[in-house]
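As promised in the previous annual report, we have extended the structural survey to additional targets. Below is the entry for ATP synthase subunit 9, mitochondrial.
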Amino acid sequence: MLLNAAKLIGAGLATISIAGTGVGIGIIFSALISAYSRTPEHQKQLFTYAILGFALSEAIALFGLMLSFLILFS
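The corresponding structure token record, generated without further manual editing, is:
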């Protein structure tokens, strides 16, 4: 009983990374819109950097989700 409760608490704590990822993605794209308005001639390069930042932020969420599944089902 105690082990099952500890697993559920650990899995819940591991999913907190998803909330942080949502905030990070919002910051990335708000900075992209701000950069577009300042220098519209660099749109292609800025978009490439934004997609790279989005992919890295999303990877953190996937790692947290994978960790929570490992905790639950091991």
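Residues 43-72 form the longest helix (30 residues). The chain has one domain: 2-72. These points will be discussed at the next consortium meeting with the crystallography subgroup.
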